[in-house]
Amino acid sequence: MDIPYTLPGFLRFLTAAILLLHFQHAGADVHVTVTAMSENIGKGFSKSAGDFSGQVNLDYQHDSGFYLGANTAYVNFGDSNSDAAHVEITPYAGWTFKLSDDWRLDGQWSRYLYDGKIFGLPSDYNDMSLFLHFRDVLSASVSFSEDYYQRGHAAANYELTGRYPVTDFLELSSGVGYTQAKQALEYDYLYWNAGVSGFYKFVTLDLRYVHAVDTANNANSRVDNHSDYYPPPIDPTFLFSISAGF
User: CA torsion 105→109→115→116, rounded to 10°?
Assistant: First the structure.
């Protein structure tokens, strides 16, 4: 059953998004991307309880390869508590190193911050990622969190993404990933997606099929414990999003 929007939570997201948009005008080198999506999906599970979501991303890149930014997104983990989190703010910083004309390496630190708790527990956490890019057609990444969602255990994620430009305005892409979070959240997820993106000026439309399975086989052994967060893997579904970049 879908969890309906909570108006105060969505207003908190709008406030955070407006602050990021206001900051964009304070620096000419800062770029902003606004995205509306049918569902907020990350690493094999839904962050919006199957509902519509939105996000705003700010990014600054220096000629040296250093970059930093922040992303804010509306989230809904299905938590009905009064102090439940509904805004996820993710500041990040990293450095891109060009290995050759075709290859580049990218190291990044991120911090996931929430405006409330997730099932009564604080859940802010760090994430360290390493990306390897081949041109703009293939990317591989490895990320690690030493205390995933502050559940007292580490988690790792591995992902491979491929892109194929059909025309200047159309691109096919697909990705597969694996999340190891059995000790932290009682799951190991294998997830994948395939879709098509269309580009027109500063607007991007994206439609893709997504699915995930729990390879730890813990779905039948979990109990309905509202003091803990055990996100189920997403069912096969189509995800639609529209983005505008400035």
Answer: 110
Label residue 9 by pLDDT band (50, 70, 90): low
Distance (Å, whole) CA 56 – CA 90: 10
Cα distances (Å, whole numbers) of residue 193 to 129, 133, 167, 234:
20, 19, 21, 11
Question: How many whole angstroms separate alpha carbon 20 and alpha carbon 244?
Answer: 15
| Tally of CA atoms within 13 A in the half-sphere of 153 that contains its CB | 10
Q: Is 78 helix (H, G, I), strand (E, B) or coil?
A: coil
How many residues in total does the chain contain? 246
- pLDDT number for residue 226: 41
CA 160, distance to chain mean position in Å, is 15
Q: Are strands 125-134 and 237-245 parallel, antiparallel or unpaired?
A: unpaired
Tokens of 44: 């094999």
In angstroms, the CA 135 to CA 108 distance is 19
Bridge partner list, 159: 141, 177
Considering only CA atoms, which of 67, 65, 54 is closest in space to residue 20? 54
pLDDT digits (tens, 9 = 90+) for 108-154: 999 999 999 998 999 999 999 999 999 999 999 999 999 999 999 99
CB 114 within 8 A of CB 120: no
pTM confidence score = 0.86
